[in-house]
Every structure is written in structure tokens, then in C-alpha cells.
Amino acid sequence: MSFVPGDIPTAEYEFFAENTIVMIVPNLTLPVLEMIHGNFGPFRPLIPERVPLWFALALKKRQRCSIQLPSWLGVDELTKTLEAERRNERFEDLPQHFFEVAHLLLELARDDFGDARTAHSVEGLLADIEDVRHAKMRAQFARVELGAHGLLGVTRLRGLTPIEINRIRTFATGSLGMLKRLRPAEDAQTQPTQTLPAGLYGQQPAFVDDRALQATLQRRR
Length: 221
Known about the structure:
It is found in: Nucleus. This protein is mainly alpha-helical and 221 residues long. The chain has helices at 10-17, 53-61, 75-87, 98-108, 116-142, 162-182, 211-219; strands spanning 21-26, 33-35, 38-40, 49-52, 65-68. It has seven helices and five strands; from the N terminus they run αββββαβααααα. 28% of the residues are buried.
């Protein structure tokens, strides 16, 4: 997967995504670990435990666990998601860090997908989902109009993930500001709809807990 950069670098969103809780199967023994997000463990060999993704990836690098993939990242579920995206005009509700978590797991825990064919299928489905959603964004922007009071009809863009929203931020605000300057207010209701390229507009992600430890582990990858 490849993301068009926005105001916030893709790497920052992956950093935020690493707080996502995943299941691991450890092959080591550890006591309860107290973190800002909560307590995790104790850890016993072959007993699944919930941990933040960044911790799972740190253990994975040291071959101290396997990662159980989220249910939505299986081939069957991704196929259903793709079909729903193609069938419906609205955007499907995806996990907050859908694309980032998938990318991190494919990059750093690829063997947990079972085999190379499965991992390749997952990559293809993710790319198709991204492309379909991108096309739907383009279609939505083709219908955007500035009304007499400068109101922007963007309600149909609900359901985008933060990284998708970020990708449109700079373009959307700049382009729409230019449109408002170029179009006289009195003619706003009579002008034809402007067609805009795809992009996203959005929100600032939440602050990441355990940032220092997480950053240290990232540097060691």
C-alpha cells in the first residue's frame, strides 16, 4: 500500500496506530506489565494475551511471540469489505487505523499471515479497498457545491479513517478557499458544480501513551 502524504506524515499515523490492541501468543514468561494504557499480562508460553501493537512488534522482532491477526484482516473479511465498498455509495466503517495496522503487520509480521500467497492476497485486497474508497471520494467531490452562504456539502464523506482524512486536508482547504474567492457570492447558487480531485479533510489523532518507550523500540527495529 502507498499513501499520498498529507499534513501529517504517514509514519506519524503508524506511530499512533501502534497503540491498537492485538492478541499475541508469547513463548516467554513475564509478570504483569504496568503501562499508562493499563496492565498487561502476566505472560505465559502459548497462552494468548492482549497487548498494544508496538509491544507485540517488539516481541515479534525478538522471536518471542506470534501475532494473532485481527479478524477484519482475513481474506474472507477483506473480500466482504471490498464488495460492500463497491456496492454502496457510502463508506464502510473501518477500524480507526485500518490501513496502518495492516501495513505494519504485513511489513513486520508477514509470517503470521500463514503463507506468501495469503499475504499477497491480503495486500491486493487492501490496495483494491483503498482504490475504491479513493474513487468514491473523487465522486463525492464532483458533487460539492458552494451555496449562497458558503456552506460546503461534505456530510457524505463520513466514514473516512484518520489517515484518509489527513490526505485531503491541505488540498481541500486551499482549493475551496480559492473557489470562494473566485465565485461571486451573488452567483453562488447558479454556478455549476466544481469537480475536485480526490483528497481528505480531517482531525488530529489522539496523543500516544508510552511514547518514549515506543519510540525507543522503533529505533531498534
